[in-house]
Amino acid sequence: MNAFIWPAILLMLFAIGPVISAITVRRALSVRWQILLLGFCALYGVGPILLALGSMGLADVLNCDRQTFALSCPQQPWLSGLLNILVFGHWFTALTLPSAILGGLGLLGSISYRLKNPGSAAMFYRCRRRGLLGGVCAGLAVRSHLPPIAVRIMAVALLVIMNALTLVAYGWAWIAFPTQKSAP
pTM value? Predict the structure, then answer.
């Protein structure tokens, strides 16, 4: 059971930004809500760094000793462990910052689309009629006015070059974007 906890936590830390972006696209949230979620993504991305800086300041206020790789608080020994966890929490930025950037880019795209097209429901639809697996490539083909086979060839080329990232992006698009109601 413990072998699955850390990978699940790391996956959750990396997936928060794209999931927030997917929710805004899927649920067609208003621009006000999207801007609020964009602020949350920014805070989420730099949160571990702010937490580490704050804990260093707290260590100075509480007169804790700075050693090479740890903080030591002689007056309150229980606080040493907590401050050490918070100080080294900035390493989580390696997961939260890319997640926040991906979520922020998705939100910025959705906000700009909403401002240009105020009456539309979604900026992208999956095409189930022409789709082979989830309709993502067919939807991209309809949106970009390309033949579906060309988009599928590009997707396979990306899969060969960047396999894990392409699979994550395809899965995210499959979850995030709704299917098209009427045939194109």
Answer: 0.60
Contact 142, 184 (CB under 8 A): yes
Q: How far apart are CA 37 and CA 172, in angstroms?
A: 18
- The gap from C-alpha 101 to its chain's centroid, in whole angstroms, comes to 7
Q: How far apart are CA 114 and CA 125, in angstroms?
A: 15
Per-residue pLDDT of 33-61, as tens digits, reads: 888 888 988 888 888 888 888 888 888 88
Asked if residues 165 and 11 have their Cβ atoms less than 8 Å apart, the reply is no
Cβ(80)–Cβ(64) below 8 Å: yes
| Ordered DSSP codes for the chain | -HHHHHHHHHHHHHHHHHHHHHHHHHHT--HHHHHHHHHHHHHHHHHHHHHHHHHHHHHHHTTPEE-SS-EE-SS-HHHHHHHHHHHGGGGGHHHHHHHHHHHHHHHHHHHHHHHH-TT-S-S--B-TTT-SSSSHHHHHHHHHT--HHHHHHHHHHHHHHSHHHHHHHHHHHHHHSPBPSS--
